[in-house]
Design a protein that fits this description.
With 135 residues, the protein is mainly β. It contains no helices and 11 strands. The two termini are 19 Å apart. 2% of the residues are buried.
Length: 135
């Protein structure tokens, strides 16, 4: 049986063989969730890549797995990709989230990522721990 984290009172009743009156006692048992919070969560160093945005054969950028301790804790990821403004004034992206922890970089519509001024796109990866016991 799995118990949710919390404080539990444990009652004990003891009776000696020749005693007429049982003795009762209790203690509190505190169960903590080792994943809320976990001991540590970190992302190993992600290698740097240099991309040519117009290269259709560029390798995908792999997001390195986060490491969580204890390793049985649940970890989910969210990804946020910013955009840049193309030559028509629309929001565009040279980054594609492949939905498998990898990102592709490609853009050949125009030179707007570089002109009239260089624009930056950011990929933010957030790892969030959750408890197997719910919120």
């Amino acid at each position: 049986m799995n118990y949710k984290p919390g404080v539990y009172q444990v009652n004990i009743r003891g009776t000696a063989i020749k005693a007429d009156i049982p003795l009762d006692n209790f203690f509190f048992l505190v169960l903590v969730d080792p994943c809320d919070p976990p001991l540590s969560v970190f992302s190993p160093a992600t290698p740097s890549y240099i991309y040519t945005l117009t290269d259709p054969n560029a390798i995908d950028h792999v997001i390195t797995d986060f490491v969580i301790e204890p390793d049985f804790c649940q970890l989910t990821f969210t990804y946020d990709v910013t955009t840049f403004t193309d030559s028509q004034g629309n929001q565009a992206s040279a980054v594609t989230n492949n939905q498998d922890g990898t990102f592709s970089f490609f853009y050949d519509a125009d030179d707007s990522p570089l002109r009239p001024v260089a624009q930056t796109q950011n990929v933010t990866v957030v790892g969030t721990t959750t408890s197997i016991f719910g919120a």
